[in-house]
Specification:
The chain is an alpha+beta fold. Helix content is about 40%, strand content about 15%. The longest helix has 17 residues.
Length: about 450
């Protein structure tokens, strides 16, 4: 049979005929297949002029490229009238390429909050809110601590099975600033609680990363589009939340990190100790522990594993190491919220009537000179009170006389830094221990103070 010619074997390759023919004759098919550039024809002064206008597109006002190009042409026209130096302008298509090049290669441009793929290296300058779903038994097995859990804890996790996590992540270091697990899909309250976790001081927790963000980027989840969450973001940053469509680069970076958290296996990692482990869990002592309590404790273990595992996205460092290296290099955090600011943003608002001794909440009397003036103005006036669940030593109240928020302080000593949950658990424990109808607030406060001082 006659050997076919090289051209005969390529007749049915369509648009790839040229590549196949050149390969047959041992010619590099990549040669001369694309247009080759020989550098720009514009001078450095011209390029500087073009970039001056291109930067306008990267400002928070975000004018269109077409409008900016018209402005540049108008500016050149006025230069010609005034007798200044003029030169040929680039085409609008070339101007668009200049803008896109600056947008991709200048991560700390003014519009970095929306379009930067790699943040500018300031921790928590941007906070990305997202969510993920876990199969709890599988996740605990991958992270290497499933066998250490008590059998009662394992059975509880099997009954819950799937859990959701609302996540607040710093995209620069890929460190977790907020991580809240729930048995159901995150709600608006879960989203607000995760944001609150990210901005308060977490040094003594498993998260350890926190800060006040300049921008909050959100996922498409309904919880992040709720009125309560968007209002909180606006009050915290002074800006609207940035949607995932405006920052696809940051969104994909965070999603890859969450995917690695849900799929990767942690080996030879010292996770430390936990009350959920077999050597510390007491079924009788922890009989009243709820499923949400267990999820909170499991979340601490997951965060510890994540922060201690090297990630190739941050040059092989762990997220915690990268976070600390950024701070060591002088990348200062934004000033954290004061206790009053945190209470105003994330506090629980309730209605209370003023008594002779002030307002009473959770069995604790709160008083202040301003509160006494309101009581003198109107007997048993009903006011709005805000309390921080993480510190019940102080509450804020809305003064109807001047329309401003003021602080009122607990009459019980030793409540500084005591959370609402700690207070309620201690009251319940003291009531059951002494078999009284209700433990006095002062005795509970003294017990809490002695315990925290001893710790």
């Amino acid at each position: 049979m006659r050997q076919p010619t090289p051209y005969a074997t390529t007749s049915n390759y369509g648009p790839n005929q040229r590549r196949v023919r050149m390969t047959k004759h041992n010619i590099n098919p990549n040669l001369h297949t694309v247009r080759i550039g020989f550098g720009t024809k514009f001078t450095e002064d011209q390029m500087a002029y073009f970039r001056h206008f291109a930067r306008a597109v990267l400002t928070p006002e975000k004018p269109s490229i077409g409008n900016v190009y018209v402005m540049m042409r108008a500016d050149m026209f006025h230069r010609e009238i005034e007798g200044q130096e003029t030169f040929a302008l680039c085409s609008e298509r070339t101007f668009r390429r200049i803008v896109h090049s600056m947008r991709n290669n200048t991560p700390n441009a003014p519009q970095a909050a929306s379009n930067a793929v790699v943040p500018d290296g300031v921790p928590t300058n941007i906070l990305v809110m997202d969510w993920c779903k876990f199969d709890l038994p599988r996740q605990c097995t991958l992270l290497g601590f499933w066998e250490r859990l008590h059998n009662d804890v394992r059975s509880r996790l099997f009954s819950i099975r799937s859990a959701y996590a609302a996540v607040a992540m710093d995209p620069c270091s890929l460190a977790l600033c907020g991580f809240r697990m729930t048995a159901g899909a995150p709600t608006s309250s879960d989203a607000v609680a995760t944001l609150a976790m990210a901005v308060r001081n977490n040094v003594e927790t498993s998260i350890q990363c926190f800060g006040r963000p300049d921008f909050v980027h959100i996922d498409g989840s309904a919880a992040y589009y709720s009125h309560a969450f968007l209002t909180t973001v606006k009050a915290l940053t002074g800006k609207e939340a940035v949607t995932d469509k405006q920052h696809p680069g940051l969104s994909s970076r965070v999603e890859r990190a969450l995917h690695s958290l849900a799929k990767s296996r942690t080996q030879d990692f010292d996770i430390g100790e936990s009350v959920l482990f077999s050597d510390q869990w007491d079924p009788a002592k922890f009989a009243m522990v709820t499923d949400q309590d267990i999820l909170d404790l499991v979340a601490q273990l997951i965060v510890t594993c994540y922060h201690g595992t090297p990630r190739h996205w941050v040059a092989g460092l762990t997220p915690m190491e990268h976070w600390n290296s950024l701070l060591a290099n002088g990348r200062a955090l934004s000033p954290v919220l004061s206790k009053a600011e945190y209470r105003d943003l994330f506090g629980v608002n309730l209605k209370r009537r003023i008594g002779n001794k002030g307002v009473k909440m959770l069995g604790i009397q709160y008083a202040s000179p301003e509160l006494a003036l309101v009581h003198a103005w109107h007997y048993k006036a009903e006011i709005e009170v805000s309390i921080d669940e993480q510190d019940i030593s102080v509450v804020s109240f809305l003064n109807p006389l001047d329309g401003r928020w003021h602080d009122a302080f607990a009459a019980v000593a030793g409540l500084e830094g005591v959370s609402l949950r700690e207070w309620m658990d201690t009251v319940d424990y003291c009531s059951r221990l002494f078999e009284t109808a209700q433990a006095t607030s002062h005795s509970v406060g003294q017990a809490l103070k002695q315990f925290r001082d001893a710790a």
